[in-house]
Prior knowledge:
The protein is α/β, with parallel strands linked by helices. It has 18 helices and eleven strands. The protein has helices at residues 2-8, 12-20, 39-53, 58-65, 72-105, 112-117, 123-127, 131-134, 139-149, 179-183, 222-232, 253-258, 262-265, 272-279, 311-315, 318-323, 325-341, 343-348; strands at 28-29, 35-36, 154-158, 171-175, 192-193, 207-213, 233-241, 283-286, 289-290, 356-357, 361-365. Strand 6, helix 11 and strand 7 form a beta-alpha-beta unit. Helix 3 (39-53) packs across helix 4 (58-65). It is globular and about 70 Å long. The chain starts with a helix and ends with a strand.
Amino acid sequence: MGRVAELADVSVRTLHHYDRIGLVRPSARTPAGYRAYRAGDLERLREVLAYRRLGFGLREVAELVGDPSADALAHLRRLRGLLRERRDLADAMVAAIDREIAARAEGVTVTPEEQLGLLGARLYDTIGGAYLATRRTEPRFAMQIGEALGDARTVVNVGAGTGSYEPAGREVTAVEPSAVMRAQRPAGSAPCVAASAERLPFVDHAFDVAMAVSTVHHWEDPMAGLREMRRVARRVVVLTFDTDEPGWRDRFWLTRDYLPEFAAVLADFPSLRGMAEAIGAARAEPVPVPWDCADGLFEAYWRRPEAYLEERVRRAVSVWTRVGPEAERRAVRRLGDDLRSGRWAERNGDLASLDAADLGLRLLVA
Length: 366
């Protein structure tokens, strides 16, 4: 163990801790009875340390290295993608800082937009690294999406992310602009094209169905992206959010009582009716969120409020990044206070009897 600690540049205490929590356990013994590492143990340790140095917490690392769909090659590709993305972002930020230094040295006023521009990574590149820890396929969502796809043979998944809802048994092409997200796609996933929804690199009616799952709100121009989906496919299926219904801001206790800034996040979001017209949707199906939802989207923990106190849960949801750190800290603090005092339970006790809740998710089917 001492030799391994020296090679990996970590302390023996760290290795003991990894052994104790089951993260990396030496699977061999020396003739004298000391713990020893086999080649496979060292490979896993390498993965653990790499993810740790990329900023993942121990719980997230355990889930990443424990992913049954990822072999050593998949982990290497994922790590390479994450590292290259961070390198590219760092290079871009250095260049932006150099430009601002030069401008200020010449007495040029730097606008707030230009100041914030040095942070200009795509939102998914900011939150994407946390996705594998909490964002998994929810089987009930997948079943409803699968039924909406019907007998489609060819499918393009726009804003595909890590591919959670890509249907099996069909010819799928994924489209994802973020290198961070593409790097996290499991081995054996559908081929993925680096492109945006607004500029799909396909001819007209190239696919039976175009699908998009919980992604439209991240697009630069949602309506343009929806029209592109309609152009490249004969049918369209979109899982999105309804802001048409009166009082929609109060559907969810988290936004009603703790995070009113959520309304501003969707201030410019297209209406459900407008999105339906853009794709020629024949119907909008409610998508209830089960109490034990496996996909850690924003509304997933409506009956498990303690989850919103966890950093790893919040980091995989774009809303928290969009509202900003001050609003996030305030919301988390107040929620924690109310959970400890019992006020949350007093206001939301009726939720305990529900198996699912309608929180505004809608499946548009054209």
